[in-house]
Amino acid sequence: MGKIVSNFFIALDGVVEAPESWHMSYINDEMMAVIGAAMEANQAFLMGRAGYDGFSEYWQANADEPYASYFNDIPKYVISSTLQDPTWKNTTVVRGDVRAVQEMKDSVDGVIFMTGSAITVRWLLEHGLLDELRLMMHPVAVGSGQKLFEDGPATKLELVRSATFSSGVLDLVYRPAS
């Protein structure tokens, strides 16, 4: 059975949108080692339709970039009711309902990274499908942008691991609280 893990770069004020505009100066060897280990453990990606559209367009058009073969070759699952014929290699469409996502999760042996969508993460948490939430909290308040948690039900999480990088970034791992 698969384990769905979500990863976000997040600012102190909860913003996860457009990390390329505020997170780059915090990248260091410590962060890259954690990201590299996570990539090695990953067996598949899970994303929503908007994430799929952005990632597939970028990685298919930039096949010569570092990590392109990783993203282009790994199995990908897209939660969508509108995507019919995905063009990105190794992509499977999963209906946007709890049963279909659970069946996909059961079919994968290992870690499935959920990427790109705070809305999808909130939905997965609400339906008991997310196993782990990994946050790299940056010491910056961005001020505006989509937040990981916006209006919605309370979500209790349990901190299972933490580390502080020399850049001041906190590496935090949470699981849904029992």
From TrEMBL:
GO biological-process terms attached to the record: riboflavin biosynthetic process
Domain spans labelled Bacterial bifunctional deaminase-reductase C-terminal: 3-169
SUPFAM superfamilies per record: Dihydrofolate reductase-like
The GO molecular function terms of this record are: 5-amino-6-(5-phosphoribosylamino)uracil reductase activity
Q: Which InterPro entries match?
A: DHFR-like_dom_sf (IPR024072), RibDG_C (IPR002734)
Task: Tell me which domain of life the UniProt entry assigns to the organism this sequence originates from.
Answer: Bacteria
Q: What name has this protein been given in UniProt?
A: Dihydrofolate reductase
